[in-house]
Amino acid sequence: MKVWGSSAIIDYLLETYDKDNELRYTSGHEKFLQKSWMAMQIKKGLQSAIDRYGNEYLKTSGKPYLIGDECTYADLAFQTWHWSLIYPPQFMGAGFIDEWKQDFPAAWAWYERIQARPAVTKVFNDRLKTMKASKH
């Protein structure tokens, strides 16, 4: 079986490996909010995605995660974007991290909450090792 496209791949992984629904809501309004956040990431053009991300995240103020009180795959999917903003290639420039912390403290706290998850930390560290190894 071939699966292609970001959303289809994530759906496949969730259906196959998240049998206890630990990373997703399976019904109600929250289920469709997850899909909305995922669809937003697929929007063409980096600047458009960044603008939409900033505007939409402002609406989530007061919630620890995008959908509510639970971390879902929608939250986790943003980590690779975050890493590209903070670490090379730093799409928004080297000074962006300070701007993010100052201008969007709730969004920064959200990033830190997700980054503190053991699985996310492991993937992040593995990514750094791979990047360093590829430079040699």
Write the layout of secondary structure elements.
Elements: H1 6-17, H2 28-42, H3 46-58, H4 73-77, H5 79-86, H6 96-103, H7 105-115, H8 118-134
Helix pairs in contact: 6-7
Q: What is the helical fraction, as a range of percent?
A: 55-70%
Major beta sheet, specifics?
none
Structure class? mainly alpha
Distance between the termini: 36 Å
Taken in chain order, the helices and strands follow as HHHHHHHH
**Beta-strand content:** under 5%
Q: On the 0-100 scale, what is the average pLDDT?
A: 81
- Which ranges are low-confidence, i.e. pLDDT below 50, for 5 or more consecutive residues? none
Summarize the structure.
This protein is mainly α and 136 residues long.
Detailed description of the structure:
This protein is mainly alpha-helical. It is built from eight helices and no strands. It has helices at residues 6-17, 28-42, 46-58, 73-77, 79-86, 96-103, 105-115, 118-134. Helix 6 (96-103) crosses helix 7 (105-115). The radius of gyration is 15 Å and the shape is globular. The model has no long low-confidence stretch (mean pLDDT 81).
Core attributes:
mainly alpha, 136 residues, 65% helix
